[in-house]
Amino acid sequence: MLNDSPVFSRRSFVTRAGGTILLGALGASALAACATDAPAPAGSAGAKGGGALAPFTFLSFLPLTSFSVVPEMYGDLTGAFKKNHLDMTLQTVKGSAQATQLLLADKGQVARNGLIDALIAAFEQNQPVVIPAVDTYRVGIRIVTTDKSPNPSDWVGKTIGVPSVNGTSDKTLSMSLRKMNIDPASVKRQLVGLSPGTFNLVQNGTLAGYMVSPDTAQIVAKQNADARIFVPTSDTGINIYMTTKSQMDKHSDELKDYFLAIQEVKKGLIAEKNFDDAIKTLKTKYTFASLDDEEIAKASFKERVEAWTGKDGRTGWPDMAQLEGAYKELVDAKIVPGGKKIESIVDTSLLPK
Predict the structure, then answer these.
(1) Where do the H-state alpha helices sit in 70-126?
(2) Minimal CA–CA distance to 160: which of 140, 190, 183?
(3) Which CATH number does 54-138+238-344 carry?
(4) Alpha-carbon span 156 to 49, nearest angstrom
(5) 224 with 196: CB under 8 angstroms?
(6) CA–CA distance, 341 with 200 (Å, rounded to integer)
(7) Closest CA to 208 of 225, 222, 192
(8) Which among 82, 131, 159, 203 is least surrounded, fewest beta carbons within 10 Å?
């Protein structure tokens, strides 16, 4: 089979991370999401200053140990949300499905979700979800393999480790295999952990590879000379922000303040040259492997800021052609019904002009 997506060695991955290696990626950090614990408030921007701050809850299907959640973590620490009148709570949830249910139950105002889950919720399950903005325009999932099985055609009849069976990562893998004319059913799945240590199962042949976040992939590549990194190739794998029609009716002002704060945070980080200040700020509260390694942290920041920027140079604004392409992929795969209009669930009225 023809491999349209890049595979990288340790040397090329670490030295080029955030540059060419990641430019072929399509968005979605969908991964550890599926394996996090039950909802738990994880941070707050501060107390309500004399009633001036409005309570606001962001739902993250990723734990706060990932560069995928940097805008919220950094905005929390730098006071960006307070500045925009929000008393912010960062709350982790167990996967995209739970994030959707909490939004519908008025337990949060906005969530970062994988596009694939948002389209399934809207068009297959008829949930009143809305996509107000895009987070990343490139896939935020990587598959770590070895030089013995670097390409998808090598995985037929073998097993790929996933953080959750039939979760966002699993679905993205299936869509990428389908796009390369490989039957998704020909590649087995096994539930595994997300840590760099799981690579031992790849090295001993138990797995052909496993799915991780980009920053974890960089750690594995740096530590193991035989590691190869595969970037999935489906537009369904990008990350979006999701809310509901009810949330927009009840909390439109707060949602506008949130997206203004996020845009300010992202633009500020995009303007940074070496990310020294941003890394120092994050370390005042957070510690995780990819942040604690300066080389990996800078590469991860570089990858994130590139993924936040659309073809037109803007952050957040949906690329309708990309969304329509993703929808067509899901229709062709018979995952969602045809005949729907993407624009019916996209509403950019919350974004700062």
Answers:
(1) 70-78, 80-83, 95-104, 115-119
(2) 190
(3) 3.40.190.10
(4) 58
(5) no
(6) 45
(7) 192
(8) 203
| Max Cα–Cα distance, the chain, nearest Å | 63
For tokens 């909390």, name the residue: 251
Segment (H or E) for 114 = strand 110-114
* This prediction's pTM: 0.83
Residues 25 and 138 sit within 8 Å (Cβ to Cβ): yes
Q: Which amino acid is at 115?
A: L
Nearest to 38 by CA among 124, 101, 85, 113: 101
CATH number listed for the domain at residues 142-230: 3.40.190.10
Q: Where in the chain is the domain with CATH 3.40.190.10?
A: 54-138+238-344, 142-230
On whether the CB atoms of residues 245 and 70 are closer than 8 A, the answer is no
- Can you tell me the distance from the alpha carbon of 153 to that of 261, in angstroms, rounded to the nearest whole number? 44
CA 36 from centre of chain: 14
pLDDT, averaged in runs of 10, over the chain (353 residues): 40 35 33 41 43 92 87 97 97 86 94 94 96 95 93 96 86 93 96 91 97 92 95 90 96 98 97 94 95 95 94 95 96 95 97 92
Q: What is the DSSP string of 248-289?
A: HHHHHHHHHHHHHHHHHHHHHHHH-SS-HHHHHHHHTT---H
Amino acid (one-letter) located at 13? F
82: Cα separation from own chain's centroid:
25
With tokens 């037929």, the residue in question is 156
* Helix, strand, coil percentages for the chain (3-state, nearest 5): 45, 20, 35
